[in-house]
Structures are given as structure tokens and as C-alpha cells.
Specification:
The protein is of the alpha+beta class. About 50% of the residues lie in helices and about 10% in strands. The protein contains 20 helices and twelve strands. The strands form four sheets. A five-stranded mixed β-sheet has the order 1-2-8-5-3. A three-stranded antiparallel β-sheet has the order 4-12-9. A two-stranded antiparallel sheet has the order 6-7. Helix 10 packs across helix 12 and helix 13 packs parallel to helix 20. The protein binds protoporphyrin IX containing FE. Protoporphyrin IX containing FE (HEM) binds next to helix 12, helix 13 and helix 20.
Length: about 475
């Protein structure tokens, strides 16, 4: 529909306390912006708009509106401010590339074959080794453990080894690999920049934060450039990981290879995009399961049978762990660890039959709101019920009501990788350990581009099976 044919043209609702010139700056939550946005959507309806200094950002929280925004004929991925802030680190890497940047299509064509379900076979043994190392470290632990930190170690180690043969050596050293604090601090800085606050750039320069940020980025570049140089000096005979693929494969379309800077951008992209989303999903899953012991028993019924015949899980068995997969799907529904994605209109259009949108205008799809839209998910939308993901229930639902991995051609390339590592890890944990988490402590969710459960602690005891 075009803007001229609309009969009920309206502006989307906006937050209370709009002020002249500055707009909707009052009430911005710079620490937990996404959780505030989800609350605003619950209050204002399936759509609202925030204007800051003339900049408009529209938030969508209803499944029907999301379906419109996911339509690739009218909309496309937008590299909005939070992603732009990542570009000094990852530039035109897959996640932050603009749609028309040539390196996106090139890297997508070269890397997509490495992320099919079948390709997971080549990562399976490494993923299992990392899970086994985690278990060995848990067995040697007497005190309680930080859930998110444990899951972060696991997923960072996994992507480091499967992607580039890099070991953070998380289970053997007492001090963190310096890459990890550099990356975490850089991402923390970027997260703060994502919310536009007048005067912040000056403040960061005066306080030295901007310089510290640049130093963190330099450190990350140095580590990754060394990894690339070492591999170039001593290449593998057969391509084994993402780095091999990037250094040896030509784009079938252009015949070009990725240049060295772009390879670095992709490695950093996989490290940034490929660990915290999965680690936090696992951490949320453990937290939710602590509140739902019946779901633990259901999953164990399946997991323990698979283990009965072999001491460990094979590649083929991972796909059979259906109840573990449902637990993860339901976890990502309630806690989409990538909390949303941005789309921009390719041309003037109208949203929801009444809200005119100009070409280039951006909309954010807020996943927590879409994933709990009562029109699709019912009155118990806030409850943890993994059986919602039984095949017949999935078939009965519109696909656009569940998008934890984004949408269209720019959806997550690492989806299969994430599922494989998460299912393997969660199944192993459920089989080997009784996990105890104090459920009386309210959940505190931190935001750093992703959503992450903060401060949840667990104790683990070996099961007798
Ligand atoms: C539970 C785990 C994960 C979640 C929830 C998740 C979520 C997402 C979402 C929502 C997007 C789309 C962003 C947008 O439209 O702006 C995305 C893109 C992406 N993800 Fe993931 N992701 C996960 C795991 C991974 C892993 C394990 C990797 C790499 C190994 C990865 C690599 C990427 C990349 C490279 C993109 C950009 C794709 C492109 O634009 O071509 N992700 N992810």
C-alpha cells in the first residue's frame, strides 16, 4: 500500500514527557535499554516511536507488524547505530556490512557452506572436547560457579578453536587471556554508544575512555593478525576451519578471495557475534530449568537413553535430542539473547495500514515483545513451556512470530553452529550433573548488545547414572 491510499494516517505513539528540540530523551534507560523498550511496548501497544534530535526510531512489538517489516520486498537489514558503533572493530564483517558492500556477498558465499547442518560434523569432536574440559573443571571444583561466566568460557573456547584453531585456554589458566577483557571492554563501550546521549563523545575524550577503547581494539587486531599470519606461514593441507576456508576459497561469483583485512574483520565478527548469544542462551536455560524441575526430568528421559549405549554423544545423536532443542527454543523465545534487529524501508510505505514510513526510515523488531505477543502465544505467553515447540504446535504458528536468529538473507549464518554447540553442552550437563540455583533470587539481566543473566550462581554435583 502507498502512503496516499491510507485512510487512517497516524503517527505512532511516543513515550511520555517529549520535550522540544531534544525530543524523547527523558526516561531513556542507558543501562538496560532493551528491557525498557519491551516495557514501553507493553504499555503503548505494538508500536511506538522515539525521536531524539530529529532522529526517528520506531519500535515494533506485535507479531503482525513484524511480519510486514520482515517482508524483503519492502524492507531490508539496517546497520543502525548500535551496529555502526561496532564498525571500528569489525568494519564490513558479515554482521555489520551494509547490504550493498561487496565484501558481504563475497564473504557470505565463501562462508555459508561452512555453516550448514552437515558441516557441523567437522566441528563436532572439537565442540565435545571443550564440553569435556568444562566438565573436568567442574568435577575439580568445590565451590559454586558463576553460570554466565562458565557458559562464556565454553562458547568462546568453542568458536576460537572451531573457527581459527585459537585456544583461549580457559580451563587451564587462572588469569583470563588478555583478549577477553579487551573484547569485553570494547563491547561495553560500544553498548553505551548505542544509545545517543548528547555530550557523550566529549565526556569520553576528556575521561580517557575513548583512548582506552582504541587501545582495546588495537590489542584485538594484533592478536587476530598474528593468528592469520601464523596460518599463512604454516597452512593446513586440508581446510579444517573457518580461517582455512577464508584463506583458500574464491567467491564463486567474482573469483575473488577475501583480503587480509576482511579476514580479520570476519574473525572478529565470529568472536563477537558467535559467543555471547549462545553462552547467554545456555545460562538462561539453566536458570529457567532450575525453576522447572519437571522439564529437567522430561529432557533427561531422552538424554539418558542416548547415553545408555555410549559414553558420549555422537554427531548424529545431537539431532535426536529433541527435548533439549525444545528447551533451547523456548529459552530463546523468552530471552532472545540478540534482543532485536533493525530494518529499513526500501521505499515510502505504510506500516499497520496507518503509520507512514519514509524510505530509509528504521524500525527495530523487539524480539521479547514479538515472542510474547498474546495474539500468537496465548495468555500464558510469559510461561516457560518447551512443548510449544512440538512440531504440530510450530506448524500451527505464523513463522514471523519467532525470529531469535533474525530474518531473510541477513539472518544469522551461525544458527546451526549455535544449536549444535548448545544442544551438546546442555544435554551433557543434564546427563552428568544436578545443577542447583537459588530460585529465590530475582533475575538480573545485563545488556551489552546481547541480554545476559547477571550474577546467577550454581553448584553442580555429579549424578549417579
Ligand atoms: C543463540 C545464538 C545466536 C543468536 C540468538 C544469534 C542471533 C543473530 C541475529 C538476530 C542476527 C541478525 C542480526 C541483524 O539482522 O542485524 C545474527 C546475525 C549473525 N550471526 Fe548470529 N546468533 C547466534 C549465534 C551465532 C554464532 C554461533 C555465530 C558464528 C559462529 C553467529 C554469527 C552471526 C553472523 C556472522 C551474523 C551476520 C549475518 C549476515 O548479516 O550475513 N551467530 N545472529
Amino acid at each position: 500500500m502507498t502512503a496516499t491510499s491510507v485512510s487512517r494516517v497516524a503517527q505512532p505513539p511516543h513515550p511520555p514527557n517529549r520535550i522540544p528540540i531534544l525530543g524523547d530523551v527523558l526516561g531513556i534507560d542507558t543501562v538496560k535499554p532493551m528491557q525498557k523498550t519491551a516495557r514501553m511496548l507493553a504499555q503503548l501497544g505494538p508500536i511506538y516511536q522515539r525521536r531524539i534530535l530529529g532522529l526517528r526510531l520506531t519500535f515494533v512489538g506485535g507479531a503482525d507488524l513484524a511480519a510486514e517489516v520482515n517482508d524483503d520486498t519492502t524492507w531490508q537489514k539496517a546497520v543502525a547505530r548500535p551496529l555502526q558503533m561496532l564498525r571500528p572493530i569489525v568494519a564490513d564483517g558479515l554482521f555489520t556490512a551494509h547490504n550493498d558492500e561487496p565484501n558481504w556477498a563475497k564473504a557470505h558465499a565463501i562462508l555459508a557452506p561452512a555453516f550448514t547442518q552437515a558441516s557441523m560434523r567437522s566441528y563436532h569432536d572439537t565442540m565435545r572436547d571443550v564440553v569435556d574440559e568444562m566438565c573436568a573443571s567442574w568435577d575439580a571444583t568445590t565451590g559454586d560457579l558463576d553460570v554466565a561466566a562458565e557458559m562464556t568460557k565454553l562458547t568462546l573456547e568453542t568458536i576460537g578453536r572451531c573457527g581459527f584453531g585459537y585456544r583461549f585456554d580457559s580451563y587451564n589458566r587462572t588469569e583470563l587471556d588478555p583478549f577477553i577483557p579487551a573484547m569485553n571492554n570494547a563491547l561495553g563501550y560500544v553498548q553505551k554508544q548505542g544509545v545517543p546521549v548528547p555530550g557523550r563523545a566529549l565526556y569520553d575524550t576528556v575521561t580517557g575512555r575513548a583512548r582506552a577503547h582504541r587501545n582495546n581494539i588495537e590489542h584485538m587486531f594484533g592478536v587476530v593478525d598474528d593468528v592469520i599470519a601464523e596460518r599463512q606461514a604454516d597452512p593446513h593441507d586440508d581446510p579444517r576451519d573457518l580461517l582455512d576456508l577464508m584463506l583458500t576459497t574464491r567467491d564463486p561469483e567474482t573469483g575473488d578471495m577475501l583480503d587480509a583485512v576482511n579476514v580479520r574483520n570476519q574473525i572478529l565478527t565470529f568472536l563477537v557475534a558467535g559467543h555471547e548469544t549462545s553462552s547467554s542462551a545456555l545460562a538462561f536455560a539453566l536458570h529457567l530449568l532450575a525453576h522447572h524441575p519437571a522439564e529437567v526430568e522430561k529432557a533427561r528421559a531422552e538424554v539418558d537413553i542416548l547415553w545408555a549405549d555410549s559414553p558420549t554423544v555422537s554427531f548424529e545423536q545431537v539431532a535426536k535430542l529433541r527435548s533439549v532443542r525444545r528447551i533451547l527454543d523456548e529459552t530463546l523465545r523468552l530471552w532472545p539473547t540478540a534482543p532485536g534487529y533493525f530494518r529499513e524501508a526500501k521505499h515510502d510505505t505504510v506500516l499497520g495500514d496507518r503509520y507512514p514510513i519514509r524510505a530509509g526510515q528504521m524500525v527495530m523488531v523487539v524480539l521479547q515483545s514479538i515472542h510474547t505477543d498474546p495474539a500468537v502465544w496465548g495468555d500464558d505467553a510469559d510461561e516457560f513451556r518447551p512443548d510449544r515447540f512440538l512440531p504440530e504446535q510450530v506448524r500451527a504458528r505464523p513463522g514471523h512470530a519467532y525470529k531469535p536468529f533474525g530474518t531473510g538473507i541477513r539472518a544469522c549464518i551461525g544458527r546451526q553452529f549455535a544449536y549444535h554447540e548448545m544442544i551438546l553442552a546442555l544435554a551433557t550437563i543434564l546427563h552428568r550433573y544436578d545443577v542447583t540455583i537459588d530460585t529465590s533470587i530475582p533475575l538480573d539481566v545485563r545488556e551489552q548488545l546481547t541480554l545476559k543473566p547477571e550474577g546467577v550462581r550454581m553448584s553442580v554435583t555429579r549424578r549417579r547414572v
